[in-house]
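Changelog-adjacent note: as of this version, every example in the card shows the full chain rather than a window. The one below runs 203 residues end to end.
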Amino acid sequence: MRKQTTRHRILEEAEKQFIHQGIANVQMKDVASAININRRTLYRYYPSKDELAFEIEIMVLKQIQDYLTIDIDDTNGKTGFEKVKAYFFQVNLDKIKEQIKFTAEFDRYFQGNYPNPELEQSFIEALNPNHDPLFQYIRDGIEDGSIRDDRTAEELYHFISQSFLSLFQRLILRENHLKHEHCDNIDFAQLFRTIILDGIRAP
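Full-length structure tokens:
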């Protein structure tokens, strides 16, 4: 079994603590202690908790994106709409539950200004739509006529991606309560997929 690097151990442990305790409640010494390194070593990798949280968020967003695209079959000959449909049929909340929990905690913690321009820029770059195949699939669909063209690819992509994260963040955070709040018979993943696909399909 391949030995984890110190950096990977830091990220894994910090992600776990940030999710379960909240970023504000975790101290760097807690992360260092959990993986048996001293604080000086931890600060050599990450000079601040904010930098550590930002790297985890960027890593998590990529994990979610990779998960959604890894099992899509050959897209040759498929319309843009068919590619988007294949993309959405990869969604299984159980596979990305911890990642989505972290995005919720990150959003809550960093509601105000970001700590510094460098972190802000690296985060913005990680959100570049050109890194996500979904954006290209939507553009393909608009070009080949399978996806409605009364909205730009940017508008459709950002609406879908923001709606996806916000809905599933809430579903995961409140999964123990929703079944008692008149939602127990609703398959939200299937409903989200159906409404989005129906909404973007060309007439």
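Structural remarks: The two ends are 53 Å apart (CA to CA).
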